[in-house]
Automatic annotation (TrEMBL):
Belongs to the PP2C family. It catalyses: O-phospho-L-seryl-[protein] + H2O = L-seryl-[protein] + phosphate; O-phospho-L-threonyl-[protein] + H2O = L-threonyl-[protein] + phosphate. It holds the Pfam family PP2C. This is protein-serine/threonine phosphatase. Its EC number is 3.1.3.16. It comes from the Eukaryota.
Length: 337
């Protein structure tokens, strides 16, 4: 059995990075205006983004040898016993890419909880600096596995552990001048079940019989239910290059972001899946999904049996397709024979 508790290999800067799909706008709003938020018609469409000159597609673009030194990867093999013993392998890869600093973190951990073996996998994509994502790596799974009802009522334990972790982070970050936050997309493998919990726009996709099956839904401000929740809490969304909560944040759920509470929350959406029939899952930050569809990602690695090699392949392909973000990916392959 391999027990892994990995540290992030990058010395990430805490300075605010340029806006991106899941990042803050550079000018943070210290509070929402007292006036009523602007009401957008339900059928409003965003203005088309500025069209930049298209570069010729170069599918054979390779990461340079110098950049390869910054592409960090690894993996392992383990077993989890449910109604039958399931063997699985996992691999991870993480790359700063074209960003000036690294704000992605990830976790792969095999632990024993109440005499049951449990596997944890997570990808945490920070914005406004790396400290929130790093905090989640160190504390989220620790809080979850320590929950007294983790085995008996795992879904409730996940919701409560996410809230506990967010509250504790916000309390610890009170003295910080700069606001920061992070998405969190996690998978718990417990017996024959996969429990996927998502906050933000990192994503989990499964492969079943060669087909891509989404196991999470991105939290974007223009999602109709998310927009309604934000407006009912007294917040608003506006178009600023993309839809943003209060004109600031391009995800509607995240850890941290104290200036945007209670509009931006860390309450996860949870989806449960039986591992029977699942060939593999991909957990990745939006640096991958911004340039690869679910279907393309699954097709790209479905014939690669080595999970670490599959994760590296996805990172390299996203970079070759022009991803301008940090890119982090975890692949978990199942063998239930």
């Amino acid at each position: 059995m391999l027990i892994s508790n990995l540290t992030n290999p990058f010395d990430a800067s805490s300075s605010l990075s340029p806006p991106r799909g899941d990042a803050r706008a550079e000018a943070l709003a210290s509070s929402f205006p007292s006036a009523d938020p602007p009401q957008l018609p339900p059928t409003i469409e965003p203005p088309p983004p500025t069209q930049l000159p298209q570069q010729p597609q170069q599918p054979d673009v390779m990461i340079s040898s110098g950049d390869l030194d910054a592409l960090f990867s690894g993996g392992g093999i383990s077993f989890v016993t449910g109604s039958r013993t399931a063997k699985f392998s996992y691999g991870y890869s993480s790359f700063k890419g074209k960003r000036p600093s690294m704000e992605d973190f990830y976790e792969t951990r095999i632990s024993e909880v109440d005499d049951q073996m449990v596997a944890f996998f997570g990808v945490f994509d920070g914005h406004g600096g790396s400290r929130t994502a790093e905090y989640l790596k160190k504390n989220l799974f620790k809080n979850l596995s320590a929950h007294p009802n983790f085995i008996k009522d795992t879904k409730t334990a996940i919701v409560e552990a996410f809230k506990q972790t967010d509250d504790e982070y916000l309390n610890e970050a009170k003295g910080q001048q700069k606001d920061a936050g992070s998405t969190a997309t996690t998978v718990v493998l417990l017996g024959d079940r996969l429990l996927v919990a998502n906050v933000g726009d990192s994503r989990v996709v499964a492969c079943r019989a060669g087909s891509a099956v989404p196991l999470s839904t991105d939290h974007k401000p223009d999602r109709s239910d998310e927009r309604q929740r934000i407006e009912e809490a007294g917040g608003f969304i506006i178009w600023a290059g993309t839809w943003r909560v209060g004109g600031v944040l391009a995800v509607s759920r995240a850890f941290g972001d104290k200036l945007l509470k209670p509009y931006v929350v860390a309450e996860p959406e949870i989806q449960e899946e039986e591992i029977d029939g699942v060939d593999f899952i991909i957990i990745a930050s939006d640096g991958l999904w911004n340039v690869l569809s679910n279907k393309d990602a699954v097709a790209l690695v479905q014939d690669i049996t080595d999970a670490e090699a599959a994760a590296r392949k996805l990172i390299k392909e996203a970079y070759a397709r022009g991803s301008s973000d940090n890119i982090t990916c975890v692949v978990v392959r199942f063998d239930s024979s």
